Amino acid sequence: MAIQFHKLEVEKIIRRTKDAVSVFFKVPNETKELWNYKSGQYLTLKFDIYGNSERRAYSLSTSPIADTDFGVTVKEVDGGKVSSYINNTLKVGDIVDVMPPLGSFTTDLNSNNSPKYFMWAGGSGITPIISLIKSIEKVQQNSKIKLLYANQSVDSIIFKDELEELSNNENISITHILEKDNDDLADIIGRITPNICSEQIKKNPEFLNAEHFMCGPAGMMDQITEALNVLNISKNLIHKELFTASENQDKLISKDSANSEENAEPVKSEVTVMIYGEEHTITVEPDETILQAGIRQNLDPPFSCQIAACATCQAKVLDGKIEMEADDALTEDEIEDGYVLTCVSHPLTSTAKIDYDY
Ligand SMILES: Cc1cc2nc3c(=O)[nH]c(=O)nc-3n(C[C@H](O)[C@H](O)[C@H](O)COP(=O)(O)OP(=O)(O)OC[C@H]3O[C@@H](n4cnc5c(N)ncnc54)[C@H](O)[C@@H]3O)c2cc1C
Ligand code: FES
After folding, report:
1. Half-sphere exposure of 352 (CA within 13 A, CB side)
2. Nearest ligand to the C-alpha atom of residue 315
3. Domains of the chain: which residue ranges?
4. What pLDDT was estimated at residue 3?
5. Which residues surround ligand 2 with Cβ inside 6 Å?
6. Ligand nearest to the CA of 243
7. CB 139: neighbour CB atoms within 10 A?
8. Ligand 1 pocket by C-beta < 6 Å: which residues?
9. Nearest atom within ligand 2 for CA of residue 57
10. Element containing residue 25 per DSSP (H, E)
11. Fold of the 117-242 domain
């Protein structure tokens, strides 16, 4: 069933840096199960700001295993509507519309295993990473974890004290990269480059077969990916979470059902949509996405980022041919199984059918 919003009360707010806060929610006993999550997953929050409904994804920075709190950490973006609202206006006791946890930037943990992990984070990208590290530390006590964390300056390091505490565990080692040399904490001065990445891996050869988790600005993720590709690290070992649109969103990826009349360009299409247990037919114009058409025709489809980064808007193609402008938030298996991100999807056939409830 397509996922919907629920009201949660803000229980606590903690300022982490001058431009980042953690926001914790009270989880009501009656809906407790809805809020079960895995480290690395995110919430979608919805706010009315100056009369506009705005929704954004925020990774859970708490660990379902190590923490009793349940919350996200938000860094204020220059001119950002929602991140500024959360940092400057939201207060304890406020009620927020929250969509239950989603996302595949996660891993199954097993106390009998001890795989190695190489974590790469930049700025607010530490949020899902710290949740993963805390859970791995608790469940897989022999797993070795290396974190490379890039920030502008020491003052912008979110979770500085928590990370220092985690690094007391001899299995966890943390390398700080700071653009500005204003503190002894800087292990490397400058920005992440492919050279720095491959040096870090080569210096720690036991991490050559590690699982890699990366989250940060798109440019930084590109640099890391380039280094991992040169080192021939298997794609199966690389997990990425994008907070902003990737820089490769001009490619078109088609997803079709078995029998379809194919066009090269998006066409006006009558799309049957299965959602919340009901079937509706909507008209999708060539210059709009299936998600935009669904919103315009009042279907209340699930969505969050609208930039192919989160997968909240995922649906399964049952009939027709549909192209995506980007597929960053889908796994290869999901793409193979016919899933699309409706926020960047356009029909190529005059009729199509999709299922949000899959
Ligand atoms: C799956 C997922 C998880 C996320 N988790 C977190 C998280 O844990 N913590 C967190 O702080 N953010 C997170 N984000 C980013 C978050 O959803 C918002 O995009 C961000 O807070 C900016 O929203 P805004 O309304 O303040 O900015 P907007 O008003 O949407 O944008 C204002 C300007 O800032 C630029 N911009 C937008 N996002 C960013 C960004 N992240 N960095 C730099 N510039 C940006 C835009 O291009 C625009 O020019 C996540 C995003 C995704 C998709
Ligand atoms: S709404 Fe986030 S991927 Fe479509």
Report:
1. 34
2. 2
3. 6-101, 117-242, 253-355
4. 79
5. 303-306, 308-313, 329, 341, 343
6. 1
7. 17
8. 42, 56-59, 72-75, 77, 79-84, 124, 127, 241, 243-244, 305, 309-310
9. 2
10. strand 20-26
11. Rossmann fold (3.40.50)
Residues 297-305: what's their mean pLDDT? 94
- 63 vs 312: CA distance, rounded Å: 21
Mean pLDDT rounded to a whole number for the chain? 93
Class of domain 253-355: alpha beta
Where are the alpha helices (H) located in the chain, listed in sequence order? 81-88, 126-139, 160-166, 194-203, 218-230, 290-296, 332-336
SS3 content of the chain, % helix, strand, coil (to 5): 25, 35, 40
Q: Which atom of ligand 2 is nearest to the CA of 311?
A: 3
Atom of ligand 2 nearest to the CA of 329: 3
In the reported structure, the alpha carbon of residue 45 is separated from the centroid of ligand 2 by a whole-number distance in angstroms of 13
Neighbouring C-alpha atoms within 13 Å toward the C-beta of 136: 29
d(CA 341, CA 292): 12
C-alpha 322/C-alpha 255 separation (Å) is: 5
Q: Phi and psi dihedrals of 323, rounded to 5?
A: -110, 150
For ligand 1, what atom is nearest to the CA of residue 54? 25
Tell me the per-residue pLDDT of 144-166, one tens digit each, with 9 for 90 and over: 999 999 999 999 999 999 999 99
| pLDDT tens per residue, range 91-111 | 999 999 999 999 999 999 999
| CATH assignment, 6-101 | 2.40.30.10
